[in-house]
């Protein structure tokens, strides 16, 4: 978009000018409204962003416009206004899962756990195929110390969404967090029967093995998912844990050649170079990450989508995520 290149060059008024011409041509375009809002909010012009969103709700009241309106208020810590906007949005779009997710997360932030539970619970009734909603509900039960309920939520979720590797992975991790290694291993075996080509499950299974068996498991994983970035990243971490520095670098390269959008891989590689590389090698990884502008990855999204970090640059997110990367052992 022309507006984006002007903005990146530091010319905000020119970017505004391009967007206002676009508005005249497409007054009901959700994409143009949201681009204009992004321009203002990322330049900390929050009142302008608010006014634009209010207008957008009048002329293009789509679920995303409603969601972005609430998200702006949430990021500015006006939780009550955010909740009000979300309630209004749900009257029109009750089956838009992200609205339910945001309501639950805001109530969690306010430490109103029972209201968060009500939001997630109502959400899964309206959106039974939203995997993130089921996982949020299960994690809420886990936080409240209700392990049996967390398990039961995920069982119900798997019945409604069979062969879903994300639900299996969460169920396995619930057991690992509870110290139930044997149950976790039995579940992993079941999960791989149901989802035999799941990269995220194979990647997790490698590090569930005792150290001497990990190499064998990684060979099995590569046979099943030789082009899956999660498996390639797990193999990179395996070489890292064995301190095979050049092998590790080579596998990070392979991972990111296949999926440059995987933020977790960039963060792992950057952390690796902070510990084992030169300043030049760190800088090279950072620059390559910035030009890829990654958006995916479990760890990456946990930081980039955290409401406290709204408006952060790719470089800021990379550095924060790298700090969270556990050193493989």
UniProtKB/TrEMBL annotation:
Keywords attached to this Swiss-Prot or TrEMBL record, sorted alphabetically, are: Repeat, TPR repeat
What cellular-component terms does GO give this entry?
catalytic step 2 spliceosome; U4/U6 x U5 tri-snRNP complex
Domain of life of the source: Eukaryota
What the entry lists under Pfam families is as follows: TPR_16, TPR_19
GO terms classed as biological process: spliceosomal tri-snRNP complex assembly
Keyword Repeat assigned to the entry: answer is yes
* UniProt xrefs under Gene3D superfamilies: Tetratricopeptide repeat domain
Keyword Repeat found: yes
- Tell me where the TPR repeats sit in this chain: 97-130
The protein's name in its UniProt record: Pre-mRNA splicing factor
